[in-house]
Specification:
The complex is a heterodimer of chains A (134) and B (488). Chain A contains 6 helices and 5 strands; from the N terminus they run αβαβαβαβαβα. Chain A is an alpha/beta fold. The chains are: A alpha/beta (134), B alpha/beta (488).
Chain lengths: 134, 488
């Protein structure tokens, strides 16, 4: 994990949005250890509030959440000029086929539960390439 | 609030096989129910099963977890179950975690989240999995009671049925249990190295229910509840049916006074090898399209029964080939008594079975665990009689040779109508078989002992008792053998 963090520019900011507290805590630890600045939100509404204060380099968002789901967060981001280019990793326990019928505008889909190594690979790839080209 | 008459409670069937029978129709819409039990009893599976059944009926469902297991992991675990329908997830059923709200904002935060989510998703079913976490976050019993009260009011107002999945051992205070509309307790008990799953309705407002403990199991279909047979006995009293049914052995019919009384139950008691099963097969061989037969066997598979019929009762093979007789084989290990009865009665009702052979009452004994046999068997006999079934059960005894017979299952002799005993007798250097009738309910019968032999067509009985008298030891020559009850 440490080795990989050296390949990613330090202090990039990642917003994690997930209603499951355990997942949020684990992802915060992993990304913090990898040298990222991490902000987190427990639902879609809180995520939009965070996005008004901070523009992250990448967003990891869960699909099923209370108050506002992942599809709602992505839609709101794509409608706002300042957030439109931020790459998004969408995570869900559902298969991507089901998700793609209900949600668009994300760059990477990860099916839960996923391995940390796979997440880090996708983060490295997305932060190295402009989201518009992903 | 819905437009429905608020003075009339609407039933919401769980869709879980057997559970709605126990609940006499299901839960009530807008009610608040606790499903409690220690880890591993299947609360989450039952909760999900109810959710998928509701979603399949077109209702919107919200599943809120407060547990450590992630939604992803939980869905992985239930994905292989037949009720799971992935297309419902995220649409008909939405899974969200309420733990963050609970952790950061306490019970009020959780209550707010539940209210907002139920309203926005128009959910009519809400499951809160891991309710013990909410209890743990309560500052006092009063706060928890207030939470439950508010949740109940919310549920009623939104016409949303709420299920709280809880582990009672984690929160001893149960003041909230006095406030909810119903409590289902799930548990596992261990008896002689085998575990049994048991469900008990501890409370159900607004309805009667089948009281006491009912067994359930969890397999690919999820949870299936087997209501205790004694609680299901139909009230239809059967008129005295005076006609007789052939036993399949003309000599035995004569001794019985014209055959077995229709709808009666008969125990064939004797040690292994005396001809009990063969006599039973002869009884079944008279099955027909109008009088279908069923064999419930515990120890011999269908293939072995077929081979046995071919060797000892060729007439039965014709009925088996024609489909007039079916074999229901059940390994005697790890079977639930009520599950077994349910399978058998379902088959009997479906095929309108009129002749039944239960080969090996010991199979029931293995399924008993610590339960007394008499109420169960009494209910079973009643149901068989109500369905017009004439039944023969074979019961093996330990005594190989001798004048004393110990009935293998205490209490059964009072429940069954007719008793026929088969015994070995040693005389000189030979071993003989004899048969005698001990009891035919409400009927005269020939109590003489008869010699019994095997022929290519099955069991043959001697024409009279002379041969039996000739082979019986002098000390045995009593009117009837001594029958004792096994205390085990």
């Amino acid at each position: 994990m440490e080795k990989r963090s050296k390949t990613v520019p330090a202090r990039k900011t990642i917003l994690i949005v997930d209603d499951e507290f355990g997942i949020l805590e684990v992802l915060e630890s992993i990304l913090d250890d990898a040298g990222f600045r991490v902000i987190s939100a427990g639902n879609g509404q809180d995520a939009l509030a965070c996005l008004q204060e901070t523009v992250p380099d990448l967003v990891i968002v869960d699909f099923m959440m209370p108050l506002l789901d992942g599809a709602g967060v992505i839609k709101a981001m794509r409608e706002k000029e300042s957030l439109r280019a931020i790459p998004v990793i969408l995570a869900s326990a559902l298969p991507e086929k089901t998700i793609s019928e209900r949600c668009s505008g994300y760059q990477v889909f990860l099916r839960k539960p996923f391995k940390a190594e796979r997440l880090m690979e996708e983060i490295s790839r997305l932060l190295a390439v402009p989201a518009s080209n992903a | 609030m819905s437009n429905k008459d608020s003075h009339q409670l609407e039933r919401v069937p769980s869709g879980v096989k057997g559970l709605d029978v126990v609940l006499r129709g299901g839960f009530f819409g807008g009610g608040l129910y606790i499903i409690e039990g220690p880890p591993g009893v299947g609360k989450t599976i039952l909760g999900n099963q109810i959710c998928f059944n509701q979603a399949a009926a077109g209702r919107k469902v919200l599943y809120v977890t407060l547990i450590a297991e992630t939604v992803g992991r939980m869905l992985l675990n239930i994905r292989s179950l037949t009720f799971f329908n992935e297309s419902e997830v995220g649409d008909g059923i939405v899974y969200v975690s309420g733990f963050s709200a609970l952790k950061t904002k306490g019970l009020n935060g959780l209550l707010h989240l539940l209210r907002a989510e139920v309203a926005s998703r128009k959910a009519t079913t809400l499951v809160v999995d891991g309710f013990a976490s909410a209890s743990d976050h309560a500052q006092s019993h009063e706060e928890l009671k207030l939470f439950v009260q508010q949740l109940q009011t919310q549920a009623d107002a939104a016409d949303c049925t709420v299920f709280l999945l809880s582990n009672p051992s984690e929160h001893a205070p149960s003041s909230e249990e006095t406030m909810v509309d119903g409590i289902l307790n799930l548990s596992t008990t261990i008896h002689e190295l085998r575990s049994s799953r048991e469900l008990c309705v501890r409370k159900l407002r607004g309805s009667s229910y089948l009281q006491g403990v009912h067994s359930y199991n969890i397999n690919q279909d999820g949870v299936t509840v087997y209501p205790r047979l004694e609680t299901l006995v139909s009230n239809n009293d059967v008129d005295g049916d005076l006609h007789r049914v052939s036993s399949g052995n003309s000599r035995l019919d004569e001794m019985l006074g014209g055959g077995l009384p229709a709808r009666s139950s008969t125990m064939l008691i004797g040690p292994s090898g005396t001809g009990k099963t063969t006599l039973g097969l002869q009884f079944l061989s008279l099955s027909s399209a109008d009088e279908p037969g069923l064999l419930l066997g515990f120890y011999e598979t269908s293939a072995r029964i077929y081979a046995k019929a071919k060797a000892l009762c060729p007439a039965l093979t014709e009925q088996l080939d024609a489909g007039h007789v079916q074999i229901l084989w059940q390994a005697p290990t790890d079977v639930f008594l009520d599950e077994l009865a349910e399978r058998m009665l379902r088959e009997i009702k479906h095929r309108k079975v009129k002749r039944l052979l239960i080969d090996g009452l010991g199979g029931f004994k293995k399924a008993l665990r610590a339960r007394p046999i008499e109420p169960f068997f009494s209910a079973l006999v009643h149901e068989l009689r109500a369905n017009g079934v004439t039944t023969i059960c074979t019961a093996e005894v330990m005594e190989i040779v001798g004048p004393t017979i110990t009935v293998p299952l205490q209490g059964l002799s009072d429940v069954t109508d007719n008793h026929i005993v088969l015994r070995f007798v040693e005389s000189g250097a030979s071993l003989y078989r004899i048969l005698s009738i001990l009891k035919v309910r409400d009927s005269a019968f020939d109590s003489d002992l008869r010699g019994l032999t095997f022929s290519p067509s099955g069991v043959e009985l001697a024409e009279d008792s002379l041969s039996a008298k000739a082979i019986l030891p002098r000390s045995w020559q009593q009117p009837e053998p001594t029958v004792t009850q096994n205390k085990k």
